[in-house]
Amino acid sequence: MTYAPDVERAEALSRAASAAIEEIAGSAWPGRLAEALRELDATWQESADACADVAWRARAAGNSVLGLLTPEHVTDSGADPVIWQAYRHLYLSALRFDFRCRTLESLMHKVPVSVMNEDPYSEALYAFSRLGQSRSDGLAVMERVLVASSGHPKTVHVLLHGVWLGSLLPGRAPLLLALVGLLPEGGLNDPIALFRMASARRSLGQYPEALTAIGHALDLLPPGDPAVQADLVREHALITTAYDLSKRARASRDTTPS
User: Fold this and answer.
1) ∠ CA(182), CA(217), CA(58), 5° rounding?
2) Could you tell me which residues come within 8 angstroms of residue 18 by beta carbon, excluding any fewer than 6 positions away?
3) Is 2 exposed, middle or buried (0-12, 13-18, 19+ CB in 10 A)?
4) pTM score > 0.90 for this model?
């Protein structure tokens, strides 16, 4: 079964996220977003969807939630469960976006296992912290998350990010392709999924397919996110360079006397 959000709920969540984004330059937006999610009695999926997007926008605006919340917002269970969940999703997502795997892992060791059993997105972020350090034990955590999350796209993207970052993981490229395939429409209309796909194809030496994927990703990427565009352009350059080198090596072999 795949995750399918209710349309009316999705609209209410979008309004809550938009209200937080309107105040993104200030210091009160994390609390207001958390309160809005509490009023909606947000599920873990709904909280993850809203918090990941707003945490990314805040980082891009130079007002990361890491400067507004503290690690105690992740580990202190004294808050309302939905508010605690929102703070956890915001803070851990921001650590993920900054590639702070060790800090994320350390914090998650202080979160009760019972919470992670009820919140696959937080467990996915823990998996990211392990996968991003190329620790193969993160693969077992990833498998648990995949079963528990029922194809929730934001959760799959967290796992994709971790495998992509973990350059020394065994079977990394095929695993990236398998995870992309779990996304809606096989990730073919998702620029970030196509970016991960292109990286995997490059690692496998499938350069024409990699160029097709990254070209499609660049076409689909919405305007206004130069950092992501730069990552995609860098991947395009890596594919082109690797492809040129492979063609030169092949030509050299073909012309070398036996």
Assistant:
1) 85
2) none
3) exposed
4) yes
Among residues of the chain, what percentage have pLDDT more than 70?
Answer: 96
Residues found in the chain: 258
User: For the segment 101-144, what is each residue's pLDDT rounded down to a tens digit?
Assistant: 999 999 999 998 888 899 999 999 999 999 999 999 999 999 99
Q: Look up residue 39 and give its two tokens.
A: 């009023």
Quick one: DSSP state of residue 136?
A: T
Distance CA 200, CA 170 (A): 13
Query: Rounded CA gap, 71 and 81, in Å?
Result: 16
The tokens of 92 are what?
A: 């851990």
Residues 187 and 181 sit within 8 Å (Cβ to Cβ): yes
One-letter amino acid at 138 equals: G
Contact 236, 230 (CB under 8 A): no
Contacts of 152 (CB under 8 A, 6+ apart): 3, 45, 48, 120, 121
What is the C-alpha to C-alpha distance for residues 43 and 190, in angstroms, rounded to an integer? Answer: 24
- Give the pLDDT band (50/70/90) at residue 1: very low
Read off the DSSP letter of residue 222: P
Backbone CA torsion sign across 136, 138, 141, 145: negative
Give the helix ranges, DSSP H, for the chain. Answer: 7-22, 29-39, 44-60, 72-75, 81-97, 101-108, 113-118, 120-131, 138-149, 153-165, 172-180, 191-203, 207-220, 226-255
Q: What is the 3-state secondary structure (H, E, C) of 36-95?
A: HHHHCCCCHHHHHHHHHHHHHHHHHCCCCHHHCCCCHHHHCCCCCHHHHHHHHHHHHHHH
